[in-house]
Amino acid sequence: MKAQIKDLKTLNIPKITDPRGNLAVIEKEVIPFKMERVYYLFDVPSGSNRGGHAHKELSQFLIALSGSFDVIVKDGKNESRITLNNPSKGLLITPGIWRELENFSSGAVCLVVASDVYKADDYIEDFQEYLDYNF
């Protein structure tokens, strides 16, 4: 079965509340894959877009550590816009979903936890190629 937007999930990240500040913890029970790579986007200029691709095998978990941004996801038939703005919630994106990130607020930081290391051949960066691949 091909990936569908309806299968995407927003997951809660366990949070420990303390008067000195909150602590959020991502351990192996939080996301349904083994973490192999972590990276983050920051200082994204106003009006800039990131993403604009899909992955053949890679799963990702996106979190707005600071500020907010929109994730536009497409499955070839449906499209949805999800705003991430809470560091105790993350968006799980499965393989085969096209994603674009935009509308970054000032100071926004997007943390990405990935199921594998970077592999150039896992990326589909042309939307028509994505449609041909996914259908």
From TrEMBL:
All copies of domain Sugar 3,4-ketoisomerase QdtA cupin, residue ranges: 7-133
InterPro entries registered for this protein in UniProt: QdtA_cupin_dom, RmlC-like_jellyroll, RmlC_Cupin_sf
Stored Pfam families: FdtA
Superkingdom of the source species: Bacteria
Name listed for the protein in its UniProt record: WxcM-like domain-containing protein
Organism: Flavivirga rizhaonensis
